[in-house]
């Protein structure tokens, strides 16, 4: 959040306390609250737009869905998690490996 938005939120809090103590009118508090709400919504929209721009180029997700095996696959880790009744089973014991592990350094290949 920007410093200006944080200042607005503090002002809203102070206006609420003043209204509760009878030092200001409801209309004044309402105007401060509306301005703060509008600023928060605009800041949130800007944040979401910036986030969408950043991740737009990242087409690769963390997991890939494989319809034929009904699994979520993480190719980087080489693990596939089964989907049971539409719910991914993310328990490590239920996962299967999708690639062969590289041979140990001391072992010989035939």
From TrEMBL:
SUPFAM superfamilies: Trm112p-like. It comes from the Eukaryota. This is Uncharacterized protein. It comes from Meleagris gallopavo.
């Amino acid at each position: 959040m920007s410093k200006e938005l944080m200042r607005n939120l503090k002002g809203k809090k102070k206006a609420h306390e003043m209204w509760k103590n009878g030092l200001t009118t409801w209309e004044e508090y309402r105007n401060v609250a509306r301005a703060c709400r509008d600023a928060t919504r605009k800041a949130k929209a800007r944040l979401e737009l910036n986030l969408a721009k950043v991740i737009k180029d990242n087409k690769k997700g963390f997991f890939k869905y494989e319809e034929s095996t009904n699994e979520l696959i993480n190719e980087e880790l080489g693990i596939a998690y089964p989907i049971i009744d539409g719910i991914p089973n993310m328990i490590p014991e239920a996962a299967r490996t999708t690639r062969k592990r590289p041979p140990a350094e001391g072992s010989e290949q035939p």
